[in-house]
Amino acid sequence: MAATSELRIDSLLSGFDQICEDFKRRIEEIQFLKSNWNAEIKRREALEFTCDSLKQDNARLTKLYTESLNNLAEQLENRAICQRLKELQRRNDEYQSKEEEHRKAVELLKKDHLKEVGDLEAKVRGLLLEKATNEATTSQLQKDLATQKDQVQVLSKRLDQLHSDKESEYLLEILDLKDCLLVEQEEKNELNKKLKDVEKE
Fold first, then answer.
1. What are the coiled-coil residue ranges (predicted)?
2. Can you say whether residue 143 is alpha, beta or left, with left for phi > 0 and alpha for psi between -120 and 50 degrees?
3. At 78, phi and psi to the nearest 5?
4. Confidence of residue 7 (pLDDT cuts 50, 70, 90)
5. CB distance 40 to 120 below 8 Å
6. Distance CA 110, CA 48 (A)
7. What digits encode the pLDDT tens for the residues 77-126?
8. Contact indicator for 155, 1 with CB cutoff of 8 Å
9. Across all residues in the chain, what is the average pLDDT?
10. CB 92 within 8 A of CB 68
């Protein structure tokens, strides 16, 4: 029974070591995910800053184009000037179209990054939940190990007590046998003495 208890203790200790290794590995994964998360947030902030700068440049250029077009429309009236104005308008339209495409691309990138950040957050929450579960399991295993140790101590004490009781019992039996032998020896001596007396008579 003591051997079985030792095997169970060894098994519990092995499971506890495995859980500790898994726990350390999960902590490293959480730290790696947090680092990636922070990098994604910085990238998103950089994109937002770039987008804001582009919007400001677009507003400034639009204002400049509008002012230029108004000034040219007021000052120039011939056909060549009108063609030039049309060309400027065409270029402005192209710029507006490209700016709209860029804005849509930035919005799409934002959505993608938000989705990645959400996925990372969900993964971190899952790892934290797994960490809490592992901690609870570790605590339970430690309690089980303490209980097993207490049981082993109790069994060891009982075994020692049983051994002591048996030794006392055997010692008493030996003393009784010695007393019996002494009594028989005395009786034997007495009979020998009587036999010698009878032979003398």
1. 78-112, 145-201
2. alpha
3. -80, 175
4. low
5. yes
6. 8
7. 666 766 776 888 888 888 888 888 888 888 898 888 888 888 898 999 99
8. yes
9. 80
10. no
Query: Rounded CA gap, 69 and 63, in Å?
Result: 10
Q: What's the rounded Cα separation, in Å, for the pair 43 and 112?
A: 12
Q: Which long-range contacts (CB under 8 A, 24 or more apart) does 155-158 make?
A: 155/1, 155/2, 155/5, 156/2
* Cβ atoms of residues 26 and 130 within 8 Å: yes
Location of structure tokens 């009236």 = 77
Side-chain-side CA neighbours of residue 54 (13 Å): 17
Question: What is the three-class DSSP state of 78?
Answer: coil
Alpha carbon distance 134, 26 (integer Å): 10
* Cα 107 to Cα 26, 39, 47, 55, distances in angstroms: 34, 19, 10, 13
* pLDDT, tens digit (0-9, with 9 covering 90-100), for 187-199: 777 777 777 766 6
Q: Is 3 left (phi over 0), alpha (psi -120 to 50) or beta?
A: alpha
pLDDT digits (tens, 9 = 90+) for 40-81: 888 888 888 888 888 888 888 888 878 877 776 676 666 676
